[in-house]
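Notes from hallway chat w/ T.B., transcribed later so I don't forget. T.B. wanted the structure written out for a chain they're using in a teaching module, and asked if we could keep both sequence and structure tokens in one place. Agreed to drop them here.
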Amino acid sequence: MNFVVNRPLKAWLDGIGLIAPGLPDWAQAAAVLRGEQPWQNAPAALPAPALLPPAERRRASRVIRLALALGQEAAAQAGADLSQLATVFTASGADGHNCHALCEQLASDDRQISPTRFHNSVHNAAAGYWGIATRSMAPCQVICAYDGSFGAGLLDALAQVVLDRRPVLLIAYDSEYPEPLHAKRPLPDAAGMAWLLSPERSAASLAQLQVTTGMQDAPSTMEQPELEALRHTYPALRALPVLQALAQRRSADLVLDYLPGHSLGVKIEAQGQPC
């Protein structure tokens, strides 16, 4: 996915969800990003997917728990109706643990794959569980662009906001693979963020975003080494500099990773209300 638009794509950011190692939710992450408390390394806390019926809840993988928690947090902050939100799910990979288990099964003498494990292996599994949980019939897109997945998902979500004039929930997430796949894709844990983007300003709006394509500038980085390590390690956290500006309630001109040789310009006009 690579295209250039002639004018900035604009939207209002109404809600944020965040889960990462040492950052269990957006409220606590905002305090760390403002420098009010230090970042302390801890495994990513993945809440049980209370939105799902009991049977699906028991089968939900780490990826499902992560994606649903991110989307629910962002929508709740904005007071949005989950069943009415168009969604864009974007991830650099799929369910690493499930993929590992499938590979082990196929390498054994017994190659009978359970239907549950198979349907959890597809890249759009999180979107399917979201539909079950929210009973949403709104449009849903599922994107993978490897390390450029956040940028690709952001462009898709913004295009829908601009063209369809409706709110869109962007959910970006990554999860770890066990060895030996981990050696080739060394994500140490699960992490992600969600943004609720709207065409019009509302009482929930935290900032206006303007995104431009066709740039080749180096991406914005984090001053704190531990937070820069998170941004660099997890493709779904490439927009941490945007969240830091929002947490500090300041406007900024930033650059985000996209595809090799391409980057996205992001202009933030903060609205000054608490994050």
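Follow-up for T.B.: Strands lie at 9-19, 86-91, 140-143, 168-174, 191-198, 207-215, 252-257, 263-270. Might be a good example for the class.
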